[in-house]
Design goal:
Length: 371
């Protein structure tokens, strides 16, 4: 047993859950709730950091990503979203295949190894639009990993086009889809999901689609939207559902906890949420994610775009081991007033500043470059 683990063992005496976490045991729903309500953040963070070190060492990874939102037109109207527009709105847009190709060319010039493509639920774009988009990207940039369309978009497309989700996934895979982003997961629990999304698939439908994708060898990320009107049990439920699916498919590459961004959302306008959550809560979420998913999903991403670089550094010391990526051109967070891009060198500096080892990774977490 390491000296650090031994020291922590002396300290966590009052918490059976932390004791179990330190021993590397799988945490139960009850443990998760206890830790959500545990008020010694320093100790919680230290145990999560210790677990991170044991499972993935001192490396902090990030990808060089180009983010592209092909349309902001959306048939849904989620209460947590500042991005969507209705068709015909002055600032509604949909990229043409030529515009997409042009942007992907810029992405390649910027050194991106993956293109992250998501959008609204466009009510009329046919499946061929997406297939053509992927074929065009693969034709001109075959090495670029196409990480496109959330499970929620796939579900919407299946309803719109009257094809099964399996059929949609297999056609998109044939056209060039390599992997999927983790968006649209939000929180799976029906008691909270209905209050933050409107017109989006259920949590179970999201899980079913992503299971199909994993079974077709399309790996994905998974997100968790927190910091709005959720209760501790919704967070714990979400993490356990991720853990259970991962045991079946091993298809999740990383969990990306997403901090709810308040500005210009219905939740703000209706005064249901008046402030973004505290940094203390951010750190608790990162630590809990690490501990609940330990040994099953071993990458916990810190989305620096939402945190800012300084808090992101602290989150990396509370269980995180990945920074997602450079996020060139990230329109969704921009809609809610956040700054969004950084070079791989800047991210590497940020990692070195906290004494960890930066590594540029591929979408599938293979090492591409050491600094
Ligand atoms: S979160 Fe996605 S599905 Fe919901 S309104 Fe925004 S763009 Fe549409």
């Amino acid at each position: 047993m390491g000296k650090r683990t031994h020291m922590l063992e002396q300290l966590v005496g009052d918490s059976q859950s932390l004791d179990r976490a330190l021993a590397g045991e799988e945490l139960s729903y009850k443990d998760g709730l206890e830790l959500m309500n545990y008020d010694n953040l320093h100790l919680l963070g230290a145990v999560a950091d210790n677990t991170r070190k044991k499972l993935v060492g001192d490396t902090v990874s990030f990808a060089s990503s180009y983010y592209m939102n092909y349309t902001n037109v959306c048939a849904a109207s989620c209460q947590m979203c500042a991005f969507y527009r209705k068709e015909g709105a002055d600032d509604a847009y949909t990229l043409t295949p030529q515009e997409i190709e042009q942007r992907v060319g810029i992405a390649k010039q910027m050194g991106a190894t993956e293109v992250h493509i998501v959008g609204g639920f466009h009510p009329t774009l046919p499946l061929e639009y997406y297939e053509d988009m992927m074929r065009a990207i693969k034709k001109s940039h075959p090495q670029l990993n196409i990480k496109a369309l959330t499970a929620a978009e796939i579900y919407f497309l299946s309803k719109l086009t009257k094809n099964s989700t399996k059929e949609i996934l297999s056609r998109l895979k044939a056209a060039g889809l390599d992997s999927m982003p983790g968006g649209g997961a939000e929180l799976f629990h029906p008691d909270i999901r209905g209050k933050i999304v409107r017109g989006k698939c259920t949590g179970q439908q999201w899980l079913d689609v992503i299971e199909e994708a994993h079974n077709m060898d399309i790996k994905s990320n998974v997100t968790m939207l927190y910091g709005h009107i959720e209760k501790p049990e919704h967070i714990v439920d979400h993490l356990i559902k991720i853990r259970e699916l991962q045991k079946k498919t091993n298809g999740f590459l990383t969990l990306i906890p997403l901090k709810f961004s308040l500005d210009n959302t219905e939740l703000e306008q209706e005064h249901l949420v008046n402030n973004e959550c505290s940094s203390v809560y951010d750190l608790k979420i990162i630590a809990l994610s690490r501990l609940m998913l330990a040994n099953v999903v071993n990458n916990i991403s810190v989305y620096w775009v939402a945190y800012g670089k300084k808090l992101a550094q602290v989150a990396l010391s509370n269980g995180g081991n990945d920074l997602v990526g450079t996020a060139f051109s990230e329109e969704i967070y921009k809609s809610a007033g956040k700054t969004t891009s950084s070079s791989v060198e800047e991210l590497a500096t940020m990692v070195k500043e906290i004494g960890r080892v930066p590594v540029q990774r591929s979408t599938h977490f293979d090492t591409l470059k050491k600094f």
